Amino acid sequence: MTKVINPPDLAVALSYDGNNAPRVTAKGSGAVAGQIVELARQHDIPLHADAGLVRVLSNVPLGEEIPRELYLAVAEVIAFAYLLSGKRPEGVSDQADG
Predict the structure, then answer these.
(1) What is the Cα Rg of the chain in Å?
(2) What confidence tier does 83 reach under pLDDT thresholds 50, 70, 90?
(3) What does the DSSP 8-state code read for residue 8?
(4) pTM (2 d.p.)
(5) What are the structural domains of the chain?
(6) What is the C-alpha separation between 91 and 33, in angstroms, rounded?
(7) Which of 39, 40, 50, 98 has the fewest Cβ atoms within 10 Å of its own Cβ atom?
C-alpha cells in the first residue's frame, strides 16, 4: 500500500544562533514549501506544524529577525526542537543548580 501525503501549502524556516532573535531563512508555498520540508527532513531538522504561526511568520521578510510579539511562540518551538534533537543551547548545562 502506498501512503500519499499532500505537501504542505506553506512553510517557513528559522535560524537561531542563541544570541540574537531568530531569523526567517526560507519561506514558500506549494512546491517550495514541500522542498523546505524535505530539506529539513534530509538534515534531521525538527519540524513543527502550527498553521497560524506559519502564516504570521510568512509575512516576515527573508533574512529579517522575527518581531518581538512572536518571541514567546517561537521560543516554545525552538525549545521543542532542542528537546527532540537532544541538544542544548550553548551555555545551558544539563545539571540542576545547587
Answers:
(1) 15
(2) confident
(3) P
(4) 0.77
(5) 10-85 (3.40.1690.10)
(6) 33
(7) 98
Tens of pLDDT, residue by residue over 42-75, are 998 888 888 899 999 999 999 999 999 999 999 9
Using DSSP's 3-state secondary structure scheme, residue 27 falls into strand
Set of cell numbers at residue 37: 520540508
Secondary element (H or E) of residue 4: none
CB 6: neighbour CB atoms within 10 A?
Answer: 6
Return the pLDDT at 92.
59
Q: Alpha-carbon torsion 51, 53, 58, 62, what sign?
A: negative
Residue, of 7 and 9, whose pLDDT is higher: 9
β-pair partners for 24: 14
Where is 11: in which H helix or E strand? strand 10-15
Where does the chain have alpha helices with state H? 31-42, 51-57, 71-85
Hunting for cell 540574537 — which residue is that? Answer: 20
Distance CA 10, CA 52 (A): 11
Cell of 30: 506549494
